[in-house]
Amino acid sequence: AKGGKILVLPGDHIGPEVVAEALKVLDIIEEHNGVKFEREFDLCGGCSLDKHGIASTEEVLQKSVEADAVFFGSAGGPEWGHKLPNPESGLLRVRQKMQIFANLRPCYFASQSLIERSPIKEELIKGVNFMLIRENCGGAYFGKKVENEDYGLDPWEYTRSEIERVARVAGALAMQTDPPTPVTSVDKANVLANSRVWRKIVTQVFEKEFPKVKLQHQLADSLAMLFITQPTRWNGIILTDNTFGDILSDESGGLTGSLGLLPSASLAGAPGGQTGQNSVGGARGLYEPVHGSAPDISGKGLANPVAQVLSLAMMLRYSFNMYHEAEVVEKAVEKVLDAKDIGGLGLRSGDLGGKAGTKEMSEAIQSEVKKLLKA
Ligand code: NAD
Ligand code: IPM
Ligand code: MN
To answer: E.C. number, please (predicted)?
Structure first.
C-alpha cells in the first residue's frame, strides 16, 4: 500500500470528538501495514467562521482538491445560527469545489444485533440493505439564491450533464453485481419540472448504457412512507436528488435505529469495485457521517463513533483501494456491536441504549481491529 494525502476537517461539536477516535483506527492500520498517510488538519464550519469570518477559506478549498481524500466530521451548531454565512456553507463550498457529485449513503445493519433496536418490527426491517446515491453538487442546494427580509428563492435546477453523470454512477455500481442490482430513481415528477427532466434523462441513460439494469421510478413522498412500511422492498440502489437524498438518508437512520451508525462517501465518479480506480477523478473523495454535529450531546464524550469509523472504512476502500483493511474495520465494528455488553462494560453508546461513551466504544473497536489485522 502506498498511503496518500488526507485533509482532515473535524468541524464543530461532536465532529472533532469522533474524528479523533476514527483516526486512531487509521494509526493502527498504518502501524500494521507500514503505510503512512500524510494528514493535514484544517478548519471548516463554525470553527472557521470564528477564526476567519468564513466557513471554509480559499486555502481550505484549494487543499481539498489537492488531497486524495477529505475526512470530514460535522459542521454547525446553535451558537452560529442559520443566517449566512453559516457553518454548513463551509461544507457545501468544499463539496462543490471538489465536484464530488455522487454521495453514497448505505443503509444496512452494521450488526444483526441491532435489528431489535430498530423502531420497525423485526419481520419488516430484517435484511434491509440499500445504497442511496444522493446527487451532491446541484439541485436546491446550489445556484443563484435570492434572500431578503420579504423573499427567499432557491432555484431547484438540474442540467442534463448533472443528471447523466450521477445516473452513470448508479448504473456502473448496479453492474458490479451479477445479476445487476436493481435501481430505484426517486423524484417528484408529478410536480417539479426538474424532476420530469431527471426522470427522462435517467431513463435514457439506463436504456442506452445499462440496458441490463432494472430501473424503476418512485415518487419521493410515497417512498418516505414505504421506507417504513416495506423497507426491504428498496434493497438495491436508490438514486435521487440532493434534497430528497438528504431527507431520505436521515430516515435511514430511523430505520436502522440510530444516525450514529451511518457513514457516507462522496465521489467524483463510480467506485471502481475491487479492481480499479474511480471512473472519473481518480481517488478523489470526501468521507463524512450522515449525522450532524449533535450539539445536544457534544462535549460530554457520549457520541457514537461508529458512523465516523465506518466513513473511514469507506475512505480506505474508495480512495485508497485498501479493501482488506476496509473490511477489517467493518468487521471490528460488527464485533463490538455484537458483543453488546462484554464484561459488563455496556459497549454501546446511549443512542443504542447502552452506557458506554465515545472512548469505550472506540477502544473496543481499536482492539478488535488490532486482533483482526494480526489474524
Ligand atoms: P444531528 O444529526 O446533529 O443530530 C440529530 C440527533 O441524533 C440528535 O439527537 C443527536 O444527539 C443524535 N446523534 C447524531 N449523531 C450522533 C452520534 N454520533 N452519536 C449519538 N447520537 C447522535 O442533527 P441536528 O441536531 O438537526 O443538527 C445539528 C447541527 O448539525 C445543525 O447545525 C446541522 O446543520 C448540522 N449538520 C451537519 C452535518 C454535516 O456537517 N455533515 C450533517 C447534518 C447536520
Ligand atoms: C448532510 C447535512 C448537510 C446537508 C448540511 C449540514 C449542509 O445535513 O450531510 O446530510 O444538508 O447536505
Ligand atoms: Mn442531512
So the answer is: 1.1.1.85
Q: Which residues are catalytic?
A: 141, 188, 221, 246, 250
Taking the centre of ligand 3 as the mean of its atom positions, its distance from the CA of residue 242, in whole angstroms, is: 10
Same domain, 132 and 249: yes
The tens digit of pLDDT for each residue in 252-280 reads 999 999 999 999 999 988 886 433 344 33
- Same structural domain, 56 and 171: no
What pLDDT is stored for residue 160 in this prediction? 98
Which residue lies with its CA nearest to atom 9 of ligand 2?
290
DSSP secondary structure string for all residues of 35-77:
--EEEEE---SHHHHHHHSSSS-HHHHHHHHHSSEEEEEE---
Whether residue 105 sits in one domain with residue 73:
yes
Asked if residues 29 and 369 have their Cβ atoms less than 8 Å apart, the reply is yes
Nearest to 22 by CA among 352, 330, 350, 344: 330
Domain count, the chain: 2
Assigned C-alpha cell, 91: 461544507
In a domain, 267, yes or no: no
The binding-site residues of ligand 2, defined as CB within 6 angstroms of any ligand atom, are: 75-76, 88, 91-92, 246, 290, 292
Ligand 1 pocket by Cβ (under 6 Å): 11, 14, 74-77, 88, 91, 259-260, 288, 291-297, 303-304, 307, 349, 351
Nearest-atom number in ligand 1 for the CA of 307 is: 18
ipTM: 0.98
Angle between helices 323-339 and 358-374 (to 10 degrees): 130
Instruction: List pLDDT tens digits, range 328-357.
Output: 999 999 999 998 766 565 688 999 988 899
Same domain membership, residue 372 and residue 307 = yes
- Domain containing residue 228: 126-256
User: Is 323 within the bounds of a domain?
Assistant: yes
Contact 106, 130 (CB under 8 A): yes
Strands 129-135 and 102-108: antiparallel
Using the structure block, give the residue that is written with the C-alpha cell 480499479.
Answer: 276
Residues 114 and 173 placed together within one structural domain of the fold: no
Does a structural domain hold residue 264? Answer: no
**Residues 44, 54: contact at Cβ < 8 Å?**
no
Considering the chain, what is the average pLDDT of its residues? 94
Judge if 33 and 60 occupy the same domain: yes
